[in-house]
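Run folding on both entries below.
>entry_1
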Amino acid sequence: MSGTLKQAVLAGFRAQLAAGGVSITYSRDALSVSITAIPGRTIETVESDFGIVFDQQRLRDWLILASDLVLDGSAVVPTRNDTITDAGGKTYRVVSIPGEPEYRYSDPYEQVFRVHSIET
């Protein structure tokens, strides 16, 4: 049963990519790969000790099929300071956010990365 559910999760994500995915280039140093990802966002609010909001950053999240993230023939995981460039030419740097690393898996079968980034 879990194999069937795993395939259903993958099929569902591929349908999302087909319906709303955008072309991006994922880069690490001189290596890069062109893939399709789903853009999202996280709003990170930083508060003072008194509960006053003094900074708010808009972060761009990307849902990426883990099997697509291959650099120089090797599967990789997102790493801080990697870059993502969208089709419009905007570049984002992979970052961690408080309480989370640079990425987390979006599904229980570790097939989809949710990558945190900020526009550079």
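>entry_2
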Amino acid sequence: MAENKFEVALLTLFGNSNIGVYLAASDRYVLVPDGVEEDALNIIRQVLRVEPITVLVGQSRLLGVLVAGNSNGILLGSTAREDEIKAIKEALPGINVEVLPSRNNAVGNLVAANDKAALVYPEFDSDSLKIIGDVLGVEVVEKSIAGVATVGSVLLVTNRGGIVHPDASEEEIKFLRDLFGVPILTGTVNFGMSFVKTGLVANSYGALAGSETTGPELARIQMALSGGED
């Protein structure tokens, strides 16, 4: 594998193609739940090129739903336990780790971020917005995309590219490109799923898509997340 090659692979976790609900990744870490088999861990290592860190949040395996972050920091849902927070901090020294005290603990569905910016649920209060900005170290913007307020579920963005709900308008796509500073394309995952984050996890090195993802969808994901334009 060439050093700069962007790799895309299919993955199933716990018999489920909705792998994005279980994993949270950036260029510096990938959080995986307890119980992931060694074969799957090896695929994660190979494609994302970071060592998996096994954790739970709120005693749940749904890390992709309960965690949002970038290379600077990690936001956890309000159900996170003290021992879980401590374990993540010890495993990732130098990365900010904080609980977002929102009534909606599905932080992964509320925040989409790379190392330049964060797009967030448009109904956060000012205290939550400040925490997001401080922890992730980026500009924070509130906005719905494709009519969906839970922007973290319809957009996956890295430091190299992004993929968004197919109903995003040209105006919204341009806004996202300007905000995050990377190419953004529309696409789907898992045979037509518009909520792309549910079946996808990625960083600047590679992407893992749910096992029901079709060849054309994979090609689109590769183009979008490797920084290619159509």
